[in-house]
Amino acid sequence: MNQSASKANTASSNRIPPRNFEALRDHIAASQESLPKRLAQAARHALAHPDDIALGTAASIADAADVQPSTLVRLARHLGYDGFTDFQSVFRERLKNRASSYEERLQNIQKGITGDSYEGALLSGFLSAARQSIDSLSEAINPAEFARCVSVLADAEIIYIVARRRAYPLAALMSYSFGKLGIRNITIDSANGVDDEIVQMATQKDAAIACSFAPYAPATVEHAQALARAGVPLVGITDTALSPLSACATHWLEVSEHDFAGFRSLSASMALTMALPVAVAERRRLGT
């Protein structure tokens, strides 16, 4: 082993690894520049398919990620874990916590409230998470990148919107706003199961917006990747540089939402997706 590799391994072994999924995701995003190609590939797969990492074997996960099992071990050690099993435990803990019922979450909230008003404390917690989310977006948003996203969408003949699960309200809001502003748009969410055919109708003269956050809705990722392969300009709204959406988007905007007792806010994402349609309409009105 050469001296630089030895130093890298020593540094990794001395690092205290993240013990929850959110911290691990942020850690990987911060270290993406230093990750070798295969390790970055494995890391992207892990963040895009956290349930599979929690439940799979090293061999099955490596096969799905198109890497060798040894790559998973090297990734784990690079991030400071003892090995793949130690790395996998973070994903298993996330799955365990996610499996808790809404009733259990509410019970946990109640245990943490010492004042007289349960309802007031509950509202205060959600409002605080919303404020923190919006403040984080205000500090992190890149106005120039936002303007580039607006430009791509303003030039489109039709704007396709893709969002599922927790991100679906963003699609509903944007579709409503674009419609009210007279901007042609199609939400890829058919009741009769022809979403793939709708995706195939998009052309390079159109544009698309895809929204998804960890653990990333598979249908959203698949449709976003299909649109990108077809050469359709794609604007991604997601939570990290290692998101599968940021990997295939023409331009992307990062939104990191805070949570209260496990209930994650959508406040910053809603603010962003309210601004986008209005900015697109104004760009078209001004013709710039």
UniProtKB/TrEMBL annotation:
Swiss-Prot/TrEMBL GO biological process terms: carbohydrate derivative metabolic process
Organism superkingdom: Bacteria
Key words, A-Z: DNA-binding, Transcription, Transcription regulation
Domain HTH rpiR-type: 22-98
Keyword Nucleus belongs to the record: no
Gene Ontology MF: a single term: carbohydrate derivative binding
Classification via InterPro entries: Homeodomain-like_sf, HTH_RpiR, RpiR-like, RpiR-like_SIS, SIS_dom, SIS_dom_sf, WH-like_DNA-bd_sf
The SIS domain, residue ranges: 149-288
Name this polypeptide is given: MurR/RpiR family transcriptional regulator
Species assigned in the record: Oricola thermophila
Upper classification of the organism: Bacteria, Pseudomonadati, Pseudomonadota, Alphaproteobacteria, Hyphomicrobiales
